[in-house]
Amino acid sequence: MNNQELEAKLDEIRASGARGVELLYVERSGFQVDMPTQTTPVQRPHSTAELTVRVWLEGGRRAARSGPASKADALVRGALEDAAAAPEDALEGPVERLSSVAGGLSILDRRLDQVEELDRVEVLTTAFRAATVPDPRLVASDFAYRDERQVRRFVNSKGLSLEESSTSYVAHGTVSADTPQGRLSVSDRIASRSFASIASLPLGTSIGRRLTQLLQEGPTLPDGPVRALLPARVTAQLVAALGTRFQDHTLGDPGAFFLTRGERGTLDRRLHLVDDGTLSGGLRTYSMDDRGVSPVPLTLLKEGQVDAGFVGIAEARRHDVRPTGHRFGDELRASNLVLKSGTRSVNACLSELGGPSLMIDDLGDPSGLDLTTGELDTTVNGLVMDANQVVGAMRGVRLRGSLHEALNSVAEVCSDTDRLGHVDAPAMIVHGFTIEG
After folding, report:
1. C-alpha angle 55/1/160, rounded to 5°?
2. How far apart are CA 236 and CA 261, in angstroms?
3. Three-point CA angle 142, 146, 151, nearest 5°
């Protein structure tokens, strides 16, 4: 559906009695390539076209329905029926144009049309073969690649008519090996807006090297307090988890998030976190959210203090402020998250600090982090460090501690930074955790 067709549908809905209407059309298409084992990769196309219909009746009674665009009429009927039975809400309604909407920078890879099956297969087979090169004990599995062109079109009864095109590329895989404690697996995922980037990133090599290091024997660390080295990958996992809770209306509620405004939200002053939906080439860069609002860059943490949060339309009207453009589906979602890096490398920091550390390879099961209390209790694998030298590995270690305490006990924020998904994060060295195992 193009914008003209959407506007015609909008007029139909208004003629049916709706006081306000929003229509969001999202079209996705591309290719998926799977390589579960060392067999010939299988490529298949994928495509979807979805429509979200949001309507308002007298008194702000609202409802929304989403589904296949081919069932637009049924979605409209369902939304109108639901709205008729909904409670009144004076804060609800479509938004007017709040500012000029610029297209997201560097989010459309015009090379996608020139990418052929051979190119996709080569990305996957190269990664698959490279994954087992570091050690003959390694077995690669479940490698996959996916590319996608996404077109989003939005119209509403306030006169907004917006369109955005973007591309994304994702590849992931797993490498496993047998150990005396059982099967050990390492997985990773890379994502980018351009094919050139994903084709050049050493996915297989990176996973294979990580697992090879974890297989080595050597000194271990005793149970108890430990200095933890969080590589950029692990810091990014923590930042991504934190980013799910910066809804503005929850930041004053101690029961919703362990970080809130005021003393309870105070962390190390070197921690500075920005949410930026306008970041050039960012995986979550966009020109408008699902309600037609352009993104506002926010400073979530400023010198370790909670500074801002995501604001939806109703909340913005309640407090007479601008919505921040973070509404996707039924939730307020972080865009690109950037944690400010330090000025010294991991090697330099560890060399100066001396002594033992545990470099965490991956945070493991995300359910081990309780964002309400900030408590972390999960099983991890890691490398034993003596200053800046790897001297051994520990597998299946129980890592416990308070994230609030750990992020108040930062030894170093390093300069080693990487972009992982929608997060740019540096390596960090922290105290405040204990290990068992």
Report:
1. 50
2. 22
3. 155
- What are the DSSP E strand ranges found in 106-203? 139-156, 161-179, 182-192
- How many residues make up the chain in this entry? 437
Q: Tell me, what amino acid is at 303?
A: E
Q: Which of 217, 219, 221 is nearest to 357 (CA)?
A: 221
Query: CA 191 → CA 68, 114, 196, distances in Å?
Result: 26, 19, 11
Mean pLDDT of all residues belonging to the chain: 94
Phi then psi for 73, rounded to 5 degrees? -65, -40
User: H or E stretch including 278?
Assistant: none
For residues 180-204, give the mean pLDDT.
Answer: 95
Give me the torsion for CA of 291, 297, 300, 305, rounded to 10°: -140
Check residue 259 and report its DSSP letter: -
Closest CA to 46 of 154, 117, 122, 149: 149
Q: Are the CB atoms for 301 and 308 separated by under 8 Å?
A: no
Residue 96 DSSP label: P
Nearest CA to 109 among 206, 35, 7, 195? 195
**Residue keyed to tokens 């080295």:** 229
Helix, strand, coil percentages in the chain from 3-state DSSP, rounded to 5: 25, 40, 35
3-state DSSP call for residue 132?
coil
* pLDDT at residue 55 tops 90: yes
- The whole-model pTM stands at 0.95
